[in-house]
Amino acid sequence: MKQNLLALTLCVVSATAFGQGQALTGQVLDAAGRPVIGATVVERGTNNGTATNNEGRFTLSSRTASPRLVVSSIGFASQEVSAGSGSISVQLAEATTSLSDVQVVGSRSQNRSVTDSPSPVDIIDLREVTAKTGQLDVNQLLQFVAPSFNSNRQTGSDGADHVDPASLRGLGPDQTLVLVNGKRQHQSSLVNLFGSRGRGNTGTDLNVIPAASIERIEILRDGAAAQYGSDAIAGVINIVLKSSVKELTASVNYGAYDAKYRRDDQKFDGGNFNANVNYGIGLGERGSFINATLDYNKREHTQRANVPNPDGIARREYGDPEVSNTSAYLNSKFALSDKSHIYVFGGANKRKGDAYAWTRFADDDRNVPAIYPNGFDPIITSDIVDVSAVAGVRTKLGEWDLDLSNNFGSNRFEYGLRNTLNATLGANSPTAFNAGGFQLQQDVVSLGLTRNYKTVLEGLNVAAGAEFRREWYSLFAGERASWDTFDTNPDAAPGSQGFPGYQPKDEIKAQRDNFGAYVDAELNVTPQWLLAGALRYENYTDFGSTLNYKASTRYNLTEFLTLRGTYSTGFRAPSLAQINFNSTFTNFIEGKPVEVLLARNNSDITKKLGIPSLKQETSNSANIGLTSRIGSSLSLTLDGYYIKVKDRVVLTSQFSARDENKVLDPVIGADLENARVAQAQFFANATDTRSLGLDVVLNHTATLGTGRLSSTLAANFNRLRIDRVQTSGRLAGREDDFFGPREQAFVKASAPPSKVNLTFDYKVSKWGALLRFVRFDKVTLLDFDNEPMKYSARITTDLTLSYALTDHLQLAVGSSNLLNVYPTLFDPQRTETGGAWDPVQMGANGRFYFAKLQARF
Question: Domain TonB-dependent receptor-like beta-barrel: where (predicted)?
């Protein structure tokens, strides 16, 4: 037995050794036979790779018995080749799509490349990004690689602590449409009420999708409501899930922050642990596959409350929430024939969070000393369940390509409280409560047809389709003790401190239907000139119909220079949450608690005030740009844009029952006092905005010594203006009360004047290094007295070093915000959150150290 085992071992070692160590040489060319400089050549299933030189040539020592090489470069379709004997010649085609692939967002033509697109599209290879940077979730990954993308970590913002709001080109989180594999992703059920970004907006929670399951992210930076429907005013983010087979990838990551502003002596906090695994199985010879991902992420609290403050401490606990995130995602395809296949994809995400609320000090009349003799710091907990499932079939119907699918998604958000009390229950109060929550569900049935006419001039692509969407929204109450007043101490503030529960009168169940139909066409008039147009009709059961269009063109002036432009109209339907949300909550103004009523759009109070029902936002947008590619080593894109949004849905300022002199407001005062609240606010189509901006992306690849240096300069310059504030009914003429300077400042701060990213990525042999500088521009917010708080521009520095430990293992270590830069500090009594700064785009946690171990087999 031992002899047989020894013989088998020797055979395996001999067979393995036979293929290892052989020198593979070759050249990578483009379709015209020109060398592709800086192309990546990787031996499949290993970390063994190299890059082509200025002549497109490479040399690689293989590590496997039967090596297969994966060759890729920006702007080209990846190609996998078998490395036989002799020199290898690889000719890369420009990146295009096919029936079996997900189309490039922004075009329904199945032979359109990214560089051919008349609209600006960013393609982000997330597998590359996750291996080289310290960020772990999708929002933060995009925040530091895509200048037009903005996302804030928030604290002291209730639900927004648990769901990071994100946006494109400085517009609202709900003005960007998110697709997964080209299908509409459902939104979060949360309405953002506090924080510096997304106030009054719903949005899509990108962090429910694990980065480990994503192959690439396509960002269409252009209005696309005529192509894809509601929410696409600012653009579209298309997440393309992995479809790789016979490749196992797994990684373990850990990082922590340098705890500069803690009250104790702890040196590090905010520990972030992530572990994930992805594997794909090939089925048969027709490209069928199943690709699955499991991901777990645990992020601990940061503590940033120890900031010098002459007016006293606003909060004892201030920092990022603690969040645990577990996800399982699947992407699959099952061939029925050479012309037809079924696809199924989707996943589930379970998230639990703990977020700090404002401190109730020992002498606070909302405290019960018998329970908390030193006061208490309430913890707002979240229990979020997000699921999605898409099933469809793609087939040939004569000369047409047909795509029929059904898409279901659900997001459920439940609030809880711990380390708190209901003061009206006195010493008998429980210290933990179920505070209720909300749920949003969506079901979409869609049918799409595309056809390419190769003989019409230089090619005509026609697409048409229809979509039926049903949405459900529900708000459910918490337990009675989380919101009610009890006789033990009836004069105290009712409900659970930190976050009062939703009341039975807040409960609602609502639904609406939407039908949409579209047609679009792309005509290559000549090999150099493209014309495109789209038309879309939609009808909503709750506010009616809308018709939108888009016109685009692209012209190749030379082989190296292309001009492009678009003009479109757009719309965004107010979300069911914006229409139906209702709550009574506690806000803190200069450290003092105030009860606030957020009344739903069709409530008795809004009807008395004459506030009309919400209607759709409408937009006009234009984009003019140029792209230039000099050889395969240098590319440049410049895109200027203009976006005008009319009747933008916002959360109004808070109306007070009485002014600072205790005089009752003649319009709304009596109604508010009858409701036992001091202030009220509403959702309304209150304002028009205009955005003017420029996106710049410059990529360069060069050989440096025996390695490859990739350099990227990417920047967004943006200016948002508020054109007017429109009041109505009994509030006519009270513009500053309706949507005042402070609320306007929050909208403008969501559209910072610029963000600039400069990245150097160098790889030589087994070593790699990434150095990145990100400049976040200044923003100005207003405190509660409308005094300006100017957050100065800041530059963060990220550094990552990586090393291939073996053919299959790679280690990366580094630091984000290496120089430990913080935003401008302010008196916590002045900020929205009660900390030393409001949530601004650079973050407020300081230096982050991390290490990553990645395996690939």
Answer: 399-818
Q: Where in the chain is the domain with CATH 2.40.170.20?
A: 121-856
Residue ranges of E strands in 676-706: 679-681, 683-704
pLDDT at 560 (0 to 100): 83
Of the candidates 234, 257, 142, the residue with the CA atom closest to the CA atom of residue 849: 257
pLDDT of residue 183: 95
Strand positions, DSSP E, 368-431? 379-397, 400-418
User: Got the DSSP string for 580-632?
Assistant: H--EEEEEEETTEEEEEEE--TTSHHHHHHTPPPP--EEEEEEEEEEEEEETT
Q: Is 175 helix (H, G, I), strand (E, B) or coil?
A: helix
Judge contact between 618 and 573, C-beta under 8 A: no
Q: Which of 118, 58, 851 is nearest to 528 (CA)?
A: 118
Nearest CA among 713, 696, 716, 690 for reference residue 776: 716
Q: How far apart are CA 232 and CA 174, in angstroms?
A: 9
Q: How many angstroms separate the CA atoms of 728 and 611, rounded?
A: 6
The CATH class of the 2-91 domain is mainly beta
Handedness of CA 190, 350, 319, 847 (dihedral sign): negative
Give the residue from 594, 437, 583, 607 showing the smallest Cα distance to 506: 583
| pLDDT of amino acid 309 | 57
The pLDDT, as a whole number, for residue 462 is 95
Give the model's pLDDT for residue 612: 86
Please tell me the distance from the alpha carbon of residue 533 to that of residue 523, in angstroms, as a whole number. Answer: 9
What residue spans in the chain does CATH classification 2.60.40.1120 cover?
2-91
Q: Which CATH class is domain 121-856?
A: mainly beta
For residue 197, which of 748, 754, 780, 796 has the smallest C-alpha distance? 748
In order, the DSSP letters of 415-459 are EEEES--BGGGGGG--SEEEEEEEEEEEEEEEEEEEEEETTSTT-
C-beta separation of 253 from 274 below 8 A: yes
DSSP H or E run through 749 = helix 741-749
Q: In the beta sheet, which residues pair with residue 623?
A: 566, 641
Extract the tokens encoding 527: 């090999």
Q: 3-state class of 5 per DSSP?
A: helix
Digit-coded pLDDT (tens) for 43-94: 776 767 777 876 788 887 777 777 888 887 766 767 888 876 668 888 887 6
Query: 754-791 as b/e, with b when 16 or more CB fall inside 10 Å?
Result: bbbbbbebbbbeeebbbbbebbbbebebbbeeeeebeb
- Reading the block at residue 79, the tokens are 């190609």
pLDDT at 110: 45
Q: Which residues of the chain carry a pLDDT beneath 50?
A: 1-20, 96-103, 109-113, 310
Q: Residues 679, 596: contact at Cβ < 8 Å?
A: yes
What do you get for the CA distance between the two ends of the chain, in Å? 30
Q: What is the DSSP letter of 242?
A: P
Q: What are phi and psi of 153, to 5 degrees?
A: -80, 130
Residue type, 632: S
pLDDT digits (tens, 9 = 90+) for 612-644: 888 999 999 999 999 887 776 788 889 999 999
Exposure pattern of 664-682 as b/e (b: 16+ CB <10 Å)? Answer: ebeebbebbeebebbbbbb
Q: Both tokens of residue 822?
A: 């913080």
Q: How many CB atoms lie within 10 A of CB 748?
A: 18
* 295-328 burial: b if 16+ Cβ within 10 Å, else e: bebbbbbbbbbbbeeeeebbbbbbbbbbbebebb
Chain centre distance of CA 140:
8
Give me the pLDDT at residue 479, please. 96
pTM beyond 0.85, yes or no: yes
Q: Which among 302, 260, 240, 238 has a CA at the least distance from the CA of 107?
A: 238
Rounded Cα–Cα distance for residues 545 and 536 (Å): 11
- How far apart CA 799 and CA 794 sit, in angstroms, is 17
Distance of alpha carbon 29 from alpha carbon 71, whole angstroms: 11
